[in-house]
Amino acid sequence: xxxxxxxxxxPITLPYPWDYPAAEPKQGCAECVAITRQINRVxxxxxPDYDPSKASDLRVRMRRHHDGxxxxx
Length: 73
Ligand SMILES: [Zn+2]
Description:
Blueprint: H1 3-8, H2 30-42, H3 52-64
Helix pairs in contact: 2-3
The structure holds zinc ion.
């Protein structure tokens, strides 16, 4: 079977990373403040700590820590 035949029936839709909602810090949460500070440091391209992957991890952590789920720490 030709490869085109196999793949033509399988639409593949992946979300772009920037389609994920931004993490919103909760008011009065020290952890949110700390995470926001880290995100601000690692997501600036001109920062010596620039690390987009880490920024993404931190956003996941921001979203999850109020659900009682850590981000693997
Ligand atoms: Zn928080």
